[in-house]
Amino acid sequence: MSDAESDASHVITAFLRNRGEVLLLRRSDAVGTYAGQWGAVSGFAEGQPDDQARIEIREETGLADDDVSLVRSGRPIEFADPDLGREWVVHPYLFDCETREIDLSEEHDAFEWVAPTETLDAVGEDRETVPELWTAYERVAPTVRSIAADDEHGAAYLSVRALEVVRDRAGLLVAEREEFGPDPDGERDELAELAGRLLEARPSMAVLRNRVNRALAEAVADVEPDRDAADGDAAGDQADTETSAPAVLESTRSNIERALAADEDAATAAADRIEGSIATLSRSDTVLDALRAGEPSRIFVAESRPAREGIGVAERLADATDAAVAVHTDAAVAHVLAREDVDRVVVGADTVLPDGSVVNKTGTRGLAVAAAREGIPVSVVAATDKVSTREDVNLESGDRTAVYDGDAPLDVLNPTFDVTPTDCVTEIVTERGALDPAEIEGIADELRALEEWRDGGPTVREATDRNPSRE
């Protein structure tokens, strides 16, 4: 640690995220610095910053450790405040939060859940924030790289993170207009390039492509009447200005809420079908919500190697339902279905192909084939945004060392996803209700129309090839 850093005051700043928004707290007169200004959960790092972040969350919001989950921590931010004559080192954190119910301590007198871009001048309301708040958020905000590397969360979760990436960039571009003026062509190119890299980040996840495409398509569609009605170059320039950062900012914000609502409605529709004994695997937040809202008497959960996310799913279900929960190896799925009285298999989907076949975590195909052999219905729970517009599929593979890290000259296979054929799927339960696999092609046609926003700018491939390393 440098002498300058040892003289600085170390503090933590913890952003709590719920439904794509973060918690801002207004500092009261009871605090010694920055009274009346808005910030995240914060406090002096008296011990280890990681431990202090959770302590401050409990003290300032009343939330228990189980109410929040750490997403990531970021590189510390060092800065000096000449007005206070102090140097600060801020340790930023991001937590996902399951509730918006906050019990304020005396350190704050108000709170709001807002899009992070609301902390930027010229974007949000006239809300004075503590120094370097946006910088702290950027250190922990989702990025193309974090989405590409995430092997813990499902496709629906990551699609919302992708929308947040575009929203945050659009908000920053809107804020920069105050200093540099509008640059609609530059904004449009930058946002198209960013969208292109997101579309290629997780090629097996159609929901990410569809939701990013919808946000960009709606941003363009919102101003088409203005463009059509524009008379003269000046009016046309004004229309073009409105098709860039401001329209994308508004569209991504509304589409985050739309995406969350679609996933919730799909879970609600599936919950009506869940009763008796259920078998599942992997981690799908939509399936988890459906199982919690349904009336299962027993739940069998395959462990889902190699990451074994099924163990965490089983633990959560044991805490959240009255059902008896059993966990078993992936290799035992056929045995469990043959020997136990299972009424229904319920799984999620990363992608539903136009022919109704389902791409999901490896092991889904084996489970569905075994279910077909036993005459057990298979319900796939997925919002319609998970329908792919493409016939082909790019199946990702995981780290070979998760399967074998020895020295023998072995080929190692660690497929992350497999494809369950249509004839092994009974129904696909969506926000529109239960659909027969044969109905999926029509939805794919609807989603293909969303890709047309790219006709007016760089294609996905052009945007990615132009600067593939940029994050």
Kindly describe this structure:
The protein has 471 residues and is an alpha/beta fold. It folds into three domains: 3-141, Nucleoside Triphosphate Pyrophosphohydrolase (Alpha-Beta Complex); 162-262, no CATH class; 265-391 and 415-449, Rossmann fold, CATH 3.40.50.10470. 41% of the residues lie in helices and 21% in strands. It has 16 helices and 18 strands. β10, α12 (309-320) and β11 form a beta-alpha-beta unit. α7 crosses α10 (245-271) and α13 runs parallel beside α14 (364-374).
CATH superfamily of the largest domain: Translation initiation factor eif-2b, domain 2
Strand content: 15-25%
Q: Which architecture of the largest domain does the CATH hierarchy give at level 2? A: 3-Layer(aba) Sandwich
Question: What's the CATH class label of the largest domain?
Answer: Alpha Beta
Number of helices: 16
Rounded average pLDDT: 89
How helical, in percent, are the residues? 40-55%
What is the number of strand segments? Answer: 18
How many domains in all?
3
The main β sheet shows up as: 8 strands, mixed
Shape: globular
Low-confidence stretches: 1-5, 225-242, 457-471
Radius of gyration: 24 Å
**CATH domain topology of the largest domain:** Rossmann fold
Structural class: alpha/beta
Oligomeric state: single chain
Outline of the structure:
Helices cover 41% and strands 21% of the residues. The chain has helices at 3-7, 49-61, 133-140, 144-149, 155-180, 184-201, 206-221, 224-229, 232-242, 245-271, 285-293, 309-320, 333-339, 364-374, 440-448, 460-466, and strands at residues 9-18, 21-27, 38-39, 41-44, 68-73, 77-81, 86-97, 108-114, 275-281, 295-302, 324-328, 344-347, 351-352, 358-361, 378-381, 417-420, 427-430, 433-435. The chain is globular, with a radius of gyration of 24 Å.
